[in-house]
User: Fold these one by one.
Assistant:
Number 1:
Amino acid sequence: MMGLRDLPISSPGEDRLGLKVYAEIFADYIRDCSTPTTIAIQGDWGCGKTSLMRLIKSELESGSQKDSPINTLWFHTWQFSQFSQADNLPFLLIQDLARKIDSRKSNDITNRLLSITGALGKGIALSAASIVGQGEAAKNVIANLEKMSKGTDMAHEIEDLHEKLMELIRAKARTSGRLVIFVDDLDRIRPVRAIELLEVMKLFLESEGCVFVLAIDYEVIRRGLEEKFGIAKAESLESYFDKLIQVPFRVPQDRAGNRLYTHHLLDSLGIKHSDKDVELYVNLLDRSAGFNPRKMKRLLNTILLHLMVGKKLFNRPDIFPMHLNVDSADIARLLFAFQCLALMDYAPLKAFPELFSGTVEEIRERLERLRSFSREDITKPHFDGLREALAKKGVSPGMLNGIVERYGSFLETFYRAIRFTGAPDDQPISAKEIQKLREILDFSAIILEQQGIDNELQDENCREN
């Protein structure tokens, strides 16, 4: 099989990110922590949240003892949010978990859910649930909702549902050990839906003997609260997050682990590389879009396609010049560098338009500026365009040094990545190197352009979700 699958880890033997040790620590914590507790596994989309949760689940199940038994349940929010079910997602969670805890007693829970949702309509029951127990305002809203539901005592219905669920969870904990509920893919649904789901979990499902482990990011909480309640202040967001989450944990990014992971991926694809190449791959992605296992897989799959196309067309000198005599490791590293350049917010760097346009001397001068970027004084004239572009983007003077340092670190790495094997590091890039770079990039232009289109579509899809 060619290419890298974008699937989470399913067993400890597949761990290449060094997550197993964290899974072991969390498993020990979950076995002994006070309950109820909600743990948030945080991180960007594709950073390994699901993989870490699966490893925690595996550790809990493999280490479960008679004196401290553990029951684990898994809920995929993404699956339930499809087919026009997003409005009912919180109640689908309750129904699904009740069925998995005790299928014989889940019918009563289902009937009560139907009573609430049938009386109030989609979404209204959730609004009532989220404000129950919050004073006079709650009483007024419930009174209004009761009128809408033709006299149904909604406060009683909701409280009764809560008690039935607590009874179900406590009974399970007494007979079979504490219950650990994993909720995945919260960052793949609309942020406001994620907030609604968290509110229902907090209200209905928190019980002694119950631990929730969520895959979510703080940014999802922020966007959801802003959409649902108009909350935008940092202190309000932090307070709300603290109310929902007792144990936040961000998926760690270990540089040594990232190198081992990248080395493993390159080996799996059969892409030729050295230890120096691996370091450049890691630094390029880390200093552009930020290191991310999913992004690394996606970029390397594209590199594999480039190399396969090049190999197929080796008998076409007009398309892939044989006379260049370029090592495949150099081609792969070079193309990866330019893909990372496209991933970066490169628009402000107007000081370097059309990197490989113009004469050889013009290109060499432009590339030398890239190499010296991090050591240059930002006030010098040839960075005027960068300063102006950053100012238009709302970057304050206080943030400027950090932005420049980030760009500088990436561009210095980029320059080293596009040098061919054997080229002296202390010498400017040669005319022969520039000619090779131009021809290779001309060959790859179509695929690189398509990659840029795919990135834009992916970003748009993420915004819609």
Number 2:
Amino acid sequence: MMKFVGLAAILASGTALGACSDHAGGGGAAAMVGNFSGTWAGTTGGGGTLVATFALEDSEDVMGTVSFSGSPCFDSAALELQVDDGDVSGTATEANASIELDGTLNVGVVSGTFQVESAGLCSGATGSFTMAHE
């Protein structure tokens, strides 16, 4: 019953994100620039699709937006993610609601988990996400 990815990532099924980069070889923020799509699934049910767009902020950070389907709490959110040698973490925010994302960039695929920090009835919800470069 929640609307996020989560983030993506923050975080179900396999999809790719960015130019081919490998976790073992380190995936930088530049590998996450562009348009992406994927899915999210809540651990207690619910799920849907997500569409994100990222722009490079600096060598380890990307900013962007994400839109969700299937969530009663989120339609879209602003994203700020840090990428360090293939590890991805950050926050999606919409108004006073926030979602913490943790994931991995591996051979162009970003997948991970999310936890809703504050969002009314969705607060405390957790799940998984996966995104792919379009």
Number 3:
Amino acid sequence: MASDKALQKADLSLLRLADGTLTVRLSGEWKLGKQLPQGEELRGKIESAETVSRLTFDTQAMTGWDSGLITFLMDIIDLGSEMHIPVEKDRLPAGVQRILTLASAVPERKGVRRKATKTSFVDRVGESSIAFWRSSLEMVGFIGEASVAFMRLLVGKAQFRPSDLLLTMQECGAQALPIVSLISILVGIILAFIGAIQSIFAVTGFLYVLLSHGWTWGDGTWMNPASPHFAVYREALTMTQAAIVAGQVANGFGCRTERESV
């Protein structure tokens, strides 16, 4: 059983000849689902070797293959092209040669493969500044056009049909009441929930400071400025204020979107 598994395991070895030919010996089953060697492993071995004039393959010990072998060979061919080393495919199985010929006959379209690009900090600042400037110009233009239109309305030079004005007033008035009421209720529920969460943290911090210094329920003398415990009371108020600020900062980060920052 152990010998059968060893024969099925995909493996490769290198044989260097005197004329500079580097033979890649493939053995075992080169199929998906098995642990296959990677092309990058062969890169290090080639770079560590002396001058290589060409690459050949020896597949006599290979017992099976599928697209996993094709992927590996494509990596080797790309590696040879990158390192300017000819790759001979005549000793590969006939089916493999046909597939590689078809794959090389149709070149990869440029722009299809996504390349991860890392944007520098200066580029990000520049893009943000340009976007902010453009949005500012659009906002100023909108305000200007609205102001001009309103001034034309005041001096009686605006041209519109009274029926259109009444229709717009109706749509923004009575017809908009249901949706505006629904949105108001939902926003109120959200604000009430957020306020309750912030209140819990604020009150917890306030009581923690007082109770940790020996305060008892119903004792109002600590709030007197003349009391020796007034400093503890101020510390509890500071903790409450810190909880409120932290809650508002969390709200700000929670409102971020992909297009809008805090």
Number 4:
Amino acid sequence: MKKGGTLTRRESQVLRHLAQWREELAQRQNTLVSRILTDDVLVAIARTKPKRLDELARVTRRLTRRQVDLWGADLLECVKRGASDSLSRDDQPRTHTGRRDDDRTRGLRSLLSAYAEATAARHGLAMVRLVKSAEIDEIARDPSAAEDMGLNVLRGWREIAVGRDLLAIARGRLGVTWDAEIGRVDVFEFDD
């Protein structure tokens, strides 16, 4: 989320809760996250941390009365949870071992996300319909254990559409390339 750069650590925590709620709602509704609420609206909510619906309604003109009526309670709950989370020494995402994500994990997460977005576009779907960013995070953190995590992307049609390839990329069995002739991202197997 590009607009969140000037937030305090506490506001960033609130923003993370809001963004996660929005992503889950977008997936349930099979739509883009920006059609739920824009980044600007989430950042404005995170900065002001409203506690009541009337305060939420005044955060920004981009937040409509209908949106407050539909999602106000959920948004206030996200603010409450984010504001009450204890602050650690640093807010960096952590791996299962408790260490900060390293460059390999961040790079792999970016590569997997790019491939998932391209695959979703090829199928005419929103990426969240295929895979959640939290699932991509789990695969990037520990590719060898991903199959045991019960991820939706590794079941049914999602596994066929994108899951198998994400695992193979994460495990170093497939590479990702841009095919300029046909204008799309593609995968290739590494020679043994």
